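re the bet — no i am not wrong, look at it urself. input seq straight from the record:
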Amino acid sequence: MRCHEVDYEIFGNDIQMVEVELDPGETVIAEAGAMNYMEQGIEFETRLGDGSEMTGGIMGRLFGAGKRLLTGESLFTTHFTNKGSGKRRVAFAAPIPGKIIPLNLRQWGETILCQKDSFLAAALGTSVDIALTKRLGAGFFGGEGFILQKLQGDGMVFLHACGAIVQKELHGETLRMDTGALVAFTPGLDFSVELSGGLKSMFFGGEGMFLSTISGRGTVWMQSLPFSRMAERIIAAAPSHGGRKLEES
């Protein structure tokens, strides 16, 4: 199934939103709760799976949707379709502060692998599937799980990340990073998790016991602020005891 050809515009610098322009009859899919606003003429419907399944009936859709549960996502996606007579727009934003990465899958070999919470929206026809890392160590110690999302198609997809985005081209090199820094990468790169160093470094270095490792030839996208790191700081800064009402003088 060929993807719908959608236009888009990204607003904001650090807390971004993407506005997708739909021609009559065009559809964009998104994670539940990602929509910010939509113009008159756009109708939305919650459906099983991503809508890319052309055959297999209800069982095929149930199987495709069931695999989404393995990534911690909902069984359903929301489909936004322009039922009007002219161009209409619908906007989406991530649930965390950060930036949006627009990718035309046709320019990236029609496949991108990403962390399970990175997917935001995509043109109808995009397959949102799962992929397992080659090494179980990446699953048990990687911090983000060994189940990745595999996005396939020939249209636009939109990923979200926390903080700034860094895109690196690898030409046979190896890149080591915080386990939560990885956002997405192209197929062909080898993803694994390794010990960060000796016992002293692991327990007292502040970098954690494990680091993610990407090697080979391809492109990798990283985020400067893994949300898990930000959440830990917020929890650590929160008061440990409830407040009390000040007595009036």
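see?? The domain at 7-233 is CATH 3.60.160.10 (Double-stranded beta-helix). told u. also Helices lie at 57-69, 136-141, 199-204, 227-237. so pay up
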